[in-house]
């Protein structure tokens, strides 16, 4: 298997991962109830991961503000990470693949902590 190398690699894991999310019995309904256009969402996720992994400008948005009001609980983050890591492991191997999983894990922890401290209110600022 190859490592994650560029935007084409990102599109592979984002597309596969979100296909799993959409059909997952635990987290699928949460995402399906708020995402009105999966194509638009996927484009944003390509830009997010391209910026996060390769420093390519183009992502605009506040991920926490979008997720805060969804009433996510630890089991949702756990499932999200399981699906994400399985997708990466199924398609890639190497330092960038490992880094991508690490970044996703850190993001999940950060979101959980911020949700716990704000009660899911995205308008509250944590310094």
Structure characterization notes:
- The chain is an all-alpha fold and 127 residues long.
- Helix content is 69%, strand content 0%.
- The chain has helices at 7-23, 28-34, 38-54, 63-67, 74-91, 95-118.
- Helix 1 (7-23) packs across helix 2 and helix 1 (7-23) crosses helix 3.
- It is globular.
- The relative contact order is 0.17.
- The model has no long low-confidence stretch (mean pLDDT 91).
What's the structural blueprint in terms of helices and strands?
Elements: H1 7-23, H2 28-34, H3 38-54, H4 63-67, H5 74-91, H6 95-118
Structural class: mainly alpha
Coarse morphology: globular
- The total count of helices amounts to 6
User: How many β-strand runs?
Assistant: 0
Separation of the first and last Cα atoms: 41 Å
| Tally of discrete structural domains | 1
> Mean pLDDT, rounded to whole units?
91
Q: How much is the radius of gyration in Å? A: 14 Å
In terms of DSSP E residues, the strand content is under 5%
Short description:
The chain is an all-alpha fold.
Please give a handful of descriptors for the protein shown.
127 residues; mainly alpha; Globin-like; 6 helices; globular
